[in-house]
Amino acid sequence: MNYLLLANVAIWLGISGYVLFLAAKQARLEKRIKHLEFLNDKQG
Amino acid sequence: MNGLIKYMCILAGLALAVSQYFIWEYAPREVTMGEVQRIFYFHLPFAWWAFVCFFLLFVSSIGVLAGKAVFWDHLAGACAEVGVLFTTLNLISGAAWAKGAWNTWWTWDPRLSTALIMWFVYCAYLVLRSGAAGSLKMRRISAVVGIVAFLDVPLVFFSARLWRSIHPAVFASRGGGLAPEMWHAVAVSVFAWGVMALVLLYLRTNQMRAMERIRQLNQG
């Protein structure tokens, strides 16, 4: 039973870790694109 | 987030919730191994969807070499990441299951060894890609590595049949030695993790497209 619990915890930590990584990356990318588009519009 | 992916996310969440019911309540307790056998319902879908991701990576790599569409390169990168994530979870859940069933975390069995080699190969592919951003030449080198790396995937799948292995080959015998209720739990779990894999692939491919847009904006 302990090993079942261990595997289950590892799986959900792995998946949620990757989803959090994707969410953080998405927020950074959107911010960066907005910033660069603003700069390009200002120059053009 | 557009309409389709929003519904895919909801479907993935619901399917995973339903799969939990099938795993913990519906599927009967296995007689020989006991409760630890329930790891199987995670372990198998991770392996299968990792294989699918690596196959898509193989196809995308051919797409990169055949044409110049950047989409194939983005899809290949997303497939490699999700495939490595699923293989990692497959190896970890397998080690926990092995400790419960065989009383060892790891053994140099053909199936386990080839799966570990596959994990190392695709980790190396990801390292190569991290230095290949944007350049057409490096994209093509990554594509060649993506094609060659796929040679190990059928080897992992057939290893339990080709060599003497203590790892069971699920489809080697008719019915795989599982009760019908167990098969239902397997089917629901495979479906749920499949939808989750598609969602992750879609989101990561879109992010790679956004990274390409940033590169273009930086140059322009």
What would your notes on this structure say?
The complex is a heterodimer of chains A (44) and B (220). Chain A contains 1 helix and no strands. Chain A has one helix at 2-43. Chain A is an all-alpha fold. Helices cover 95% and strands 0% of the residues of chain A. Chain A has a domain at 18-44. The radius of gyration of chain A is 19 Å and the shape is rod-shaped. Chain B has one domain (40-165, 177-219). Chain B has helices at 3-26, 40-66, 70-102, 110-130, 136-149, 152-162, 180-219. In chain B, helix 3 (70-102) packs antiparallel against helix 7. The longest helix of chain B has 40 residues, at 180-219. Chain B is globular, with a radius of gyration of 19 Å. The mean pLDDT of chain B is 89. The chains are: A mainly alpha (44), B mainly alpha (220). Chains A and B meet through helix 1 of A and helix 2, helix 3 and helix 7 of B.
